[in-house]
Design brief:
By secondary structure, the chain is of the alpha/beta class. It has 7 helices and 6 strands, in the order E-E-H-E-H-H-E-H-E-H-H-E-H. Strands 1-2-3-4-5-6 form a 6-stranded mixed β-sheet. Helix 4 links the parallel strand 4 and strand 5. It is globular and about 45 Å long.
Length: 196
């Protein structure tokens, strides 16, 4: 039993080659690297004819301690298969480890460094990076949501990516629709976006 989320979105990609900056309509799906079926799932995505896949990367799971090496075995499998099957990847960074957190959220320098490592490890597979989807929630930001802190993480990561490969897209503002601000660590998405 495989789980793959499939969606279509108008993007600046060519539907046949998924190249950035070309108008078109790309079909994609989202896969999880959190289980050992990721390799099978990427083959299923290719069989469905998807142009790209979103790959969720649980940062705390693959790199829980700063002094240890990151456990990227599953990522290696996913990105190797994606490369062999000519599927482009959007990487979504979620769940930063405690050691990568500042008082206001994920540390901008550490986050940019982590993204840089991923892009250098998988230079031909990572076409886009999404920073902390649902950042207007406590679960998405891993602490109280903070648009100004998010912007600092975005700016630092953007500058780092521009030095490595300016063609990699940096995705931001993937927010959860919330009717109002409440005490559970969620911020109205429109209010958050205005502050961002």
């Amino acid at each position: 039993f495989l789980t793959i989320s499939i969606f279509a979105a108008p993007l600046n990609v060519n539907a046949q080659t998924s190249l950035p900056a070309v108008d078109g309509f790309g079909f994609g799906g989202r896969i999880s690297t959190w289980d050992n079926r990721a390799g099978i799932t990427i083959h299923a995505a290719a069989a469905l004819g998807l142009d790209w896949v979103g790959v969720d990367i649980d940062w705390a799971e693959i790199w829980p301690e700063p002094g240890a090496s990151a456990n990227i075995n599953r990522l290696d499998e996913v990105f190797s298969n994606a490369h062999d099957l000519n599927i482009r990847c959007l990487v979504s960074i979620v769940n930063p480890p405690r050691w990568a957190m500042s008082k206001t959220g994920p540390d901008p320098n550490i986050t940019a460094g982590f993204v840089a490592q991923l892009v250098r490890l998988y230079p031909n597979q990572v076409s886009a990076v999404e920073l902390f989807p649902s950042a207007n929630t406590k679960d998405g930001w891993s602490t109280t949501p903070n648009p100004q802190a998010y912007l600092e993480v975005y700016k630092k990561t953007s500058a780092t990516l521009n030095e490595i490969n300016p063609d990699i897209l940096l995705i931001a503002g993937g927010l959860v629709p919330i009717a109002g601000t409440d005490n559970s660590g969620q911020v109205n998405d429109l209010e958050y976006l205005q502050k961002l």
